[in-house]
Amino acid sequence: MPLIELETTIKANIDSCFDLSRNIDLHCVSTTGTKERAIDGICTGLIGLNETVTWEATHFYIRQRLTSKITAYERPHHFKDEQVKGAFAYIKHDHFFKSLGDTTLMIDKFDYGVPYGIFGKLFDEWVLNNYLCRFLEERNRIIKDYAESGQLLDHYQISK
């Protein structure tokens, strides 16, 4: 079972980091390389408990759709999204947030399974795991950049 764990230290308050991490619009900004866009469910703004979003994106030259649902939510310390429908056997992505004074530690635990037996496992080992790590690192870099900029609220409507 593959598991990716990332830690990102952000010079911003925990509430801002929590909201940016569940902001659909900012997610689209962070995934321009795959042309990811929300096409169903919550398509803009903040996603919350028991809400779903369907993403359409191009990965490995293949247009794909993935629907995820927020299955756990404890503001501002944790939320979890899980694949409801998509190409993976499963995806469970936990987002944890710890306040460290004037900074926030954002911790991602991205657990996933690949289909297609041994072929899926080999693809994961040779290509997919590194691809997903870079994908999540870029997403976190964008979250960090927006959280640390003084212009965040001018660009995105962040409601609580």
Q: Strand share of the residues?
A: 35-45%
Tell the overall outline: globular
Q: Which CATH class is shown?
A: Alpha Beta
Main structural class? alpha+beta
Helix run count? 4
Mean of residue pLDDT values? 92
Which architecture does the CATH hierarchy give at level 2? 2-Layer Sandwich
What would you report as the Rg, rounded to the nearest angstrom?
Answer: 15 Å
Q: Report the major sheet.
A: 7 strands, antiparallel
Distance, first to last CA:
35 Å
Question: What would you note in describing this structure?
Answer:
With about 160 residues, the protein is of the alpha+beta class. It has one domain (about 5-155): Alpha-D-Glucose-1,6-Bisphosphate, Chain A, domain 4 (2-Layer Sandwich), CATH 3.30.530.20. The protein is about 30% helix and about 40% strand. The protein has helices at about 15-20, 25-30, 115-150, 150-155, and strands at about 5-10, 35-40, 50-60, 60-75, 80-85, 90-100, 105-115. It has a 7-stranded antiparallel sheet with strand order 1-7-6-5-4-3-2, with helices on one face. A hairpin with a 4-residue loop joins strand 5 and strand 6 (about 90-100). Helix 1 (about 15-20) packs across helix 3 and helix 2 (about 25-30) packs across helix 3. The longest helix is centred in the C-terminal third of the chain and has 32 residues, at about 115-150. It is globular. The N and C termini lie far apart (about 35 Å).
